[in-house]
């Protein structure tokens, strides 16, 4: 497996290269966005580890340009910023996952394994489940009957559901995606937001349903 690491902190890049090489990955390292983009254009990497704050081109712009050029290698963003808006911006740019700095090396390798299992696939510009269309760029959520008026966290949840339509999502996965790491929400906050999201999708007659999977979490399916 060939990994591209694009990280301007040379010490961190060297540590990642050494650790991944010890686990039998082939590793290429770039220290700025321009070189990182060039490597991605020249080589079909199995997965890319991409820092957000880079000289030359920032990580979000590198990711956008890769996707515009139909480079679909899975991308794990490394970021020191953990707000919902920052994470949504990363997903909008075409990233597959994100990891907050500082992080444990074991968590990074676990996320890389998950991305490698998923493999490279083209990311559509909009997400469709039933008659529901989620546009990550404009953040519009629509059906033929209107536009759903969602909060930022409701949008983050519906985008996650649409990206992983049919998959069962645990509450901790949903919390990690839609809340700041510093937040200490009430234990039922996920259920409250899902209930609100269901009502708003019903208002626009969405055929995409959020189904409760008892004891596990939720999943979105297209009603038959």
TrEMBL record:
Name the Gene3D superfamilies for this protein.
3.40.50.2300, 6.10.250.690, Winged helix-like DNA-binding domain superfamily/Winged helix DNA-binding domain
CDD domains in UniProt:
REC_OmpR_CusR-like, trans_reg_C
Entries under Pfam families matching the protein: Response_reg (PF00072), Trans_reg_C (PF00486)
The residue ranges of the Response regulatory domain are 2-116
SMART domains to which the protein is assigned, alphabetical: REC, Trans_reg_C
Swiss-Prot/TrEMBL keywords: DNA-binding, Phosphoprotein, Transcription, Transcription regulation, Two-component regulatory system
Residues the UniProt record assigns to the DNA-binding region sit at: 124-222
- Domain OmpR/PhoB-type, which positions? 124-222
Q: Which SUPFAM superfamilies match?
A: CheY-like
Keyword check for Transmembrane: no
Q: Which of the residues bear the PTM 4-aspartylphosphate?
A: 51
PANTHER family, A to Z: REGULATOR OF RPOS, TWO-COMPONENT RESPONSE REGULATOR ORR33
Q: Please identify the protein, giving its name as recorded.
A: Response regulator transcription factor
What organism is this sequence from?
Flexivirga alba
């Amino acid at each position: 497996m060939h990994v591209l690491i694009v990280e301007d902190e040379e010490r961190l890049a060297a540590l990642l290269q050494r650790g991944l090489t010890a686990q039998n990955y082939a590793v290429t390292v770039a220290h700025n966005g321009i070189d990182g983009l060039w490597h991605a254009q020249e080589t079909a990497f199995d997965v890319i580890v991409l820092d957000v704050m880079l000289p030359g081109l920032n990580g979000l712009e590198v990711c956008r340009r890769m996707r515009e050029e139909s480079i679909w290698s899975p991308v794990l963003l490394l970021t020191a910023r953990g707000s919902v808006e920052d994470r949504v911006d990363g997903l909008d740019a075409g990233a597959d996952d994100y990891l907050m700095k500082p992080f444990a090396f074991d968590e990074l390798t676990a996320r890389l394994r998950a991305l490698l299992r998923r493999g490279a696939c083209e990311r559509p510009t909009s997400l469709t489940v039933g008659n529901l269309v989620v546009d990550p760029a404009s953040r519009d959520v629509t059906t033929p009957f209107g536009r759903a008026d969602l909060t930022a966290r409701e949008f983050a949840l519906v985008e996650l559901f649409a990206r992983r339509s049919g998959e069962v999502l645990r509450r901790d996965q949903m919390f990690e995606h839609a809340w700041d790491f510093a937040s200490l929400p009430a234990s039922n906050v996920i259920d409250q937001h899902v209930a609100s999201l269901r009502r708003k999708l019903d208002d626009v007659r969405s055929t995409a349903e959020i189904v409760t999977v008892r004891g596990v979490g939720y999943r979105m399916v297209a009603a038959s």
